Backbone:
């Protein structure tokens, strides 16, 4: 479990295809601590397990499914990634609950600058699987960054990014056409799933059904 508050960024040192997976090595010096083998680390929002660690380098095995569903499969030597260690029970939850389970990717359509922030507009690459979980003013994790949805429209959405986030994460390097990892809010997903069991195709939801299920 993570919070979406990026600790630092790391630089990709190598990407090596292997037997059913890709071995990814990242410079994790900015983490300020030695990572242990088996530890969980959010890399661009995807929860990965440290497979090897030496000094300021951590290596991960990224399976084919993860490469296909995230932007990790597009990484090249020299690229930067967002890094966050797993949440501990005594830590403050400054962002929101982030599992590190990527729902899909989104493509940057345009970036509006001004008034001390960036507004980034994106389109979902697989809207049929993700769009229903995007709620205006709700939370979303993009490349592992906890952000608030500014606007949600048919086929696109936007987030406002403050200067601190631009400086401390990879978002300051974004360009039109880049793909980012999307993880929707687990609480929204849980509510939508539960409501789908309450309603039916013929009558849909009613206040009575919501009351019976304890939602109203």
Residues:
């Amino acid at each position: 479990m993570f919070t979406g508050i990026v600790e630092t960024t790391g630089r990709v040192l190598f990407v090596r295809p292997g037997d059913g997976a890709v071995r990814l090595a990242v410079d994790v010096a900015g983490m300020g601590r030695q990572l242990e083998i088996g530890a969980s680390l959010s890399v661009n929002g995807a929860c990965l397990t440290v497979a090897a660690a030496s000094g300021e380098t951590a290596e991960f095995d990224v399976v084919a499914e993860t490469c296909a569903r995230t932007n990790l499969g597009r990484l090249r030597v020299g690229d930067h990634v967002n890094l966050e260690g797993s949440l501990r029970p005594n830590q403050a939850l400054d962002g929101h609950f982030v599992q590190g389970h990527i729902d899909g990717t989104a493509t940057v359509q345009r970036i509006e600058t001004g008034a001390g922030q960036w507004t980034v507009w994106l389109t979902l690459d697989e809207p049929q699987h993700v769009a229903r979980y995007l709620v205006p003013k709700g939370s979303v994790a993009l490349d592992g960054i906890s952000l608030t949805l500014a606007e949600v429209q048919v086929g696109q959405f936007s987030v406002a990014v403050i200067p601190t986030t631009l400086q401390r994460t990879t978002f300051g390097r974004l360009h039109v056409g880049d793909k980012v990892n999307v993880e929707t809010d687990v609480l929204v997903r849980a509510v939508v799933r539960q409501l789908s069991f309450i309603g039916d195709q013929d009558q849909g939801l009613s206040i009575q059904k919501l009351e019976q299920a304890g939602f109203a």
The longest strand covers residues 104-114.
